[in-house]
Design a protein that fits this description.
The chain has 261 residues and is of the alpha/beta class. The protein has a domain of 127 residues: P-loop containing nucleotide triphosphate hydrolases (Rossmann fold, 3-Layer(aba) Sandwich). It is built from eight helices and ten strands.
């Protein structure tokens, strides 16, 4: 079933550009993000996807262009004033704090009263299925569990947009599959708009309502997974996305056939 574009545009990105010396990382890109959608930014290393994410959250300033959120210009706003949360690849948990303390800490920084912060943290930890692990330190958790703590910490701040920077790249295959299901469940439960950076074609197609395929700082195609398969915009999309996906399918088919023999 194809993704139906919502009437409400959550983010408007217009003419966004970023250059490092002679390297043009983002080349005046334009796109919209719709309320409640799961949008993946897909591309190889160096294509500009992480730079774009860091500009959206406010950790980098663009050289050109602007960002509108709910119609308001937030291009120069501080990260804490954007109503966004970010989940990093390395989890960024405090190793000397328990699961509960890690999630609480983010709320205390926002000046939430102590009892309210405790209740909110416990609710988020329960929501990601870690209720029985509240008192554990991060090094007693698996990689997937640590990533759930990072997600709970971000969701506890009640952002209306969550940005995720390759959050599953360090996980083993089985854990990644489990986390995909968990992430979609959480997104649907909270109705949160999610923007997800990945270099993994299979991951993008499994999770996304729409996929933005980036190539050298430009958007090659922005569409639903179904439409990208049916109508690849150019040779780059065909090669980087569809041919790579087909190679994985063929490899699995050969392995399955070998098992039967």
């Amino acid at each position: 079933m194809e993704f139906q574009l919502k009437e409400k545009v959550k983010l408007e990105i217009r003419g966004l550009g970023k250059r490092y010396k002679e390297n043009e990382v983002l080349d005046g890109i334009d796109f919209d993000v719709y309320d409640g959608e799961f949008l993946s930014l897909l591309g190889p290393s160096g294509c500009g996807k992480t730079t774009l994410l860091r500009i959206l959250i406010g950790l980098l300033k663009p050289d050109t262009g602007k960002i509108l959120k709910d119609g308001a210009d937030i291009t120069g706003a501080k990260p804490a004033d954007r109503g966004m949360g970010i989940v990093f690849q390395n989890y960024a948990l405090f190793e000397n704090m328990t699961v509960l303390q890690n999630v609480e800490y983010a709320l205390k920084i926002r000046k939430m009263p102590k009892m309210e912060a405790r209740k909110k943290a416990e609710e988020m930890i329960e929501a990601v299925g870690l209720g029985e692990h509240c008192k554990k330190l991060p090094h007693h958790l698996s990689g997937g569990q640590q990533q759930r703590v990072a997600i709970a910490r971000t969701l506890a701040l009640n952002p209306d947009i969550v940005l995720l920077d390759e959050p599953m790249s360090a996980l083993d295959v089985a854990t990644r599959l489990s986390m995909r299901r968990e992430l979609k469940r959480l997104q649907e439960s909270f109705g949160t708009t999610m923007i997800y950076v990945t270099h993994d074609q299979e991951e993008a197609f499994a999770l996304s309502d729409r996929i933005m395929i980036l190539d050298q700082g430009k958007i090659s195609q922005l569409d639903t997974p179904e439409n990208i398969v049916k109508n690849p915009a150019n040779e780059y999309v065909q090669t980087f996305v569809l041919d790579n996906l087909q190679a994985k399918v063929d490899s699995l088919a050969r392995f399955t056939a070998g098992k039967r023999d």
